[in-house]
């Protein structure tokens, strides 16, 4: 609603992103046709009811976590300064990576809620590689997921420990790789509502243009700027900040929501059409079982708090190593999550991240399967 | 950027309605009890809490949209620029309206046999425990009695073996919602041990193409959080006249347990003597009772 600033046009016409989405849709379309061939076309009304049962369920399940994520992210935006964020993160990259691995204990939430928080933290000056470690490890290395995994594998509790350990290893390796290699800014241009824009105050609040430093950190003097504008007693300042948080939360709800809805819809459709038995036949061998489990985790897009129970249902068909692959890979990379990552990063970077995750999880799970005692 | 004010406000009003729509739909699900079709009981309060947050957000957004529309001072500043083209705005709003409209226009229903066949229902053996070759020597350690020999176990199946022994000693197995997952797992782990033991169980009817006309499965879905992680489990039933029972209808079965072979595997079976049609229970899915606390009620 500000008439003075030119529109951030390029982020709606980024050719890379459009290409990526077209490729994704094409791949899904082809998969869809292949899947539909095995389905009875006359059962379409049935398909609609099943789709609804799954889609609504996935959205409702993700909603509390996403709301928590956007509220927390908005509180971060308004109440926590960039300086605080940067002071908290160790300078030593190794320490910073380990620090990010255990952030999940402070903020135990699955990937739907984590995406807005991480996006905010990056814009607040959190280095990219630590943010990536947090987004990869956070949904696994946290007490809620550990407890769920422990219960799902109550007869094999060591798998719960391995899951945490291996997730830490994978996330750290990818984090350090990104620290060394990625020097360009992989962020999508700051969408509305993210740092660098003034809020609160009047409708025609002056906008600060974002100042980009280091790998994509954006410094906007938002919080302090708001304070200086509101010339009223302390209570009113806090009221202004709460109001500002709510505005942010609403914007972010719509910003993230569209990715969640898209991801949820595709996931629900695939679950309606895909027959698990026909897939299990594909994943017989020792190597193929890992690849199969990654594919399965990707397509199912389960929440990390419940995926351990699904993994345990595969226990009779797959070796423990492949189950670990499922439980480490899924929370780091799945269909719903990929689409949500596109809200934060450029498509090229999401692709790089996907390749890194696939390769690292595969290697780590294989080595672990050979070296760790599995029973 | 100079979008007409009317467009901006129309978009803001739309967003308010979307927030309100989500909140009302969740409230409706909660009041009608249909929330059970979508979300496991332990997660329901979180979803209901989100409805409260969405109401708050809708009220806040609506109030400030109204104030700004009237030119009144407003502490809110919405940066969110709607997409520039009317088409893109339409697509974006439709994406958000889609679940709400789907929610209200398509009747709420729980998942049944169609998804059970997609997710795959295992009749042969336990789904929750890894099948590890059990040697009798390990069972001797449990207690050394003949009962323990019937229920050999290792450290992975110990809990189920204990439950199996308990079930073996009861005169009549009543399978309720609470403990459904564990009891079925224990029974299926030792399919040969429960010859002609009377049992009562409820569930929906599921069929596979390879079943005989008198065969079907009595099944329930086990869900942890949402239907995306639902896993079907059930017992193979043989019943004369069983072909009269419609797939997906809910029944309460009384009969005796036994063993048969299905697709080359020994599986637990239920010879049903009586089938009583029932309505689907309010809590339509079952959840695992991880603490085995139902055991006291056996």
From TrEMBL, chain B:
Domain DUF1980: residue ranges: 15-121, 152-286
Keyword presence, Membrane: yes
Keywords of this entry: Membrane, Transmembrane, Transmembrane helix
Keyword hit for Translocase: no
Domain of life: Bacteria
TM segment ranges: 12-31, 43-66, 86-106
Signal peptide: none
InterPro entries per UniProt: DUF1980 (IPR015402), DUF1980_C (IPR048447), DUF1980_N (IPR048493), UPF0703_membrane_permease (IPR052955)
NCBIfam families listed in its UniProt record: TIGR03943 family putative permease subunit
PANTHER family: UPF0703 PROTEIN YCGQ
Protein known as: TIGR03943 family protein
Organism: Paenibacillus zeisoli
